[in-house]
Amino acid sequence: MPSRWEQVVVDAEDPPRLARWWAEALGFVLVNEEPGEVEIRRTRHELPGLLFTPVSDPKRVKNRLHIDLRPDDQEAEVERLVGMGARPVDIGQGNVDWVVLADPEGNEFCVLGARPAA
User: Fold this and answer.
1) 29-48 pLDDT, tens per residue?
2) Of 93, 51, 46, which is closest to residue 68 (Cα–Cα)?
3) 109 three-class SS
4) Please, are residues 54 and 12 in contact by the beta-carbon 8 Å criterion?
5) Contact by Cβ (8 Å): 91, 62
6) pLDDT tens digits along 78-90
7) Are strands 49-54 and 7-12 parallel, antiparallel or unpaired?
8) Are 59 and 107 in contact (CB under 8 A)?
């Protein structure tokens, strides 16, 4: 039997602040907060979650793993996320249909266009 995907761990300089930022960005809820870790999920019992854990060093290089978001309205979502503190970044993506942003600690993520109708 294969393993079940429990969570993605995100190293953070300020786990509570970054977890709350991502919870607002994704419409997730905070499910656990302890010294040293904060977890958010879509709902209390729905996996996977994002687990934010502390690190003392700042992010220095491009992420090797990132989140892709697919909103109904890409332009409005980019505007909302930038208003929350995200910023546009260039990771060498060139001319593409998605927008690359970084969260308040510099972690890159992509905002895709709406899924084409089937």
Assistant:
1) 999 999 889 999 999 999 99
2) 93
3) strand
4) yes
5) yes
6) 999 999 999 999 9
7) parallel
8) yes
Q: Burial of 104 by CB count in 10 Å (0-12 exposed, 13-18 middle, 19+ buried)? A: middle
- Say if pTM beats, i.e. exceeds, 0.85: yes
User: Nearest to residue 81, comparing CAs of 94, 93, 69?
Assistant: 69
Strand order across the beta sheet in which 29-34 lies: 7-12, 49-54, 37-41, 29-34
**What gap in Å lies between CA 7 and CA 5, rounded to an integer?**
6
Q: What is the DSSP string of 45-80?
A: TPSPEEEEEE-SSPP-S--SS-EEE--S-HHHHHHH
Radius of gyration of the chain (CA): 15
Distance CA 72, CA 9 (A): 27
Cα dihedral 3, 65, 23, 6, rounded to 10, equals 10
Confidence of residue 116 (pLDDT cuts 50, 70, 90): confident
